[in-house]
Design brief:
The protein has about 220 residues and is mainly alpha-helical. The chain has ten helices and no strands. GO terms for molecular function: carbohydrate:proton symporter activity.
Length: about 220
């Protein structure tokens, strides 16, 4: 939504400089190698900095840059300030750089980490389904809403990003340097570790008995 419909909104408002169209058509922000540098860097630093730090940094910067983008969009729409139109494009790139700090390299791996084994496949399926619904919403709802409300519609996403940051602050669990079993204990309690250990002992005993029977 950020890139495609911001450019659509700027074009509708008359912002049609050659530089704007060159950036729009030849270097879409979400495909820019320079932006994905931050995703690669975060992937290498995740065990040093931790998941929580990266997610909070990413969400905080996304909220900041998107708020700045909304302000610049409003300035260009209401007052026709050319510098504000160029600033919107700059903040789009900064927004995607902030997104790539955590959500590109960690969103899938973190989902896998926090789900216990018996729920992992179902949880990941629900995650993919929600992502698909968000894509459908972005494709069909955002253009109509932006056309009807203009820059004011960006405030909806400013509020959403702020809520997302608050949610991550209070509920995101750090999984750095923890095994999957230790992570399960955070969500399910110490009983989960005992259950996992008991299942492991039972499985080892069953395998031992099977091997003994086959040898006999």
């Amino acid at each position: 939504m950020v890139w495609k419909w911001s450019c659509f909104g700027l074009s509708k408002q008359g912002f049609r400089s050659n530089r704007h169209h060159r950036i729009k058509h030849s270097a879409a922000a979400e495909r820019s190698p320079g932006i994905h540098f931050w995703a690669v860097l975060a992937a290498f630093l995740v065990n040093r900095l931790g998941r929580r730090f990266l997610f909070l940094t990413s969400a905080g910067l996304m909220t900041l840059f998107y708020t700045a983008q909304a302000i610049c969009f409003a300035q260009y729409s209401e007052h026709g300030v050319p510098a504000a139109g160029h600033a919107v494009v700059a903040f789009v790139f900064l927004f995607f750089a902030a997104y790539d700090i955590a959500f590109t390299p960690l969103i899938v791996s973190y989902i896998v980490e926090i789900f216990p084994f018996h729920l992992r496949a179902k949880g990941f399926t629900i995650f993919c389904f929600v992502i698909s619904l968000a894509g459908i919403f972005s494709q069909y709802v955002n253009p109509s809403a932006l056309a009807a409300l203009g820059w004011k519609y960006l405030l909806v996403y400013v509020c959403w990003l702020a809520v997302e940051f608050v949610f991550l602050w209070f509920f995101l669990v750090e999984t750095k340097n923890r095994t999957l079993e230790e992570t399960a204990a955070i969500f399910d309690g110490e009983d989960a570790l005992q259950k996992i250990a008991h299942q492991g002992e039972t499985r080892e005993l069953r395998d031992f008995l099977c091997q003994t029977t086959m040898k006999g």
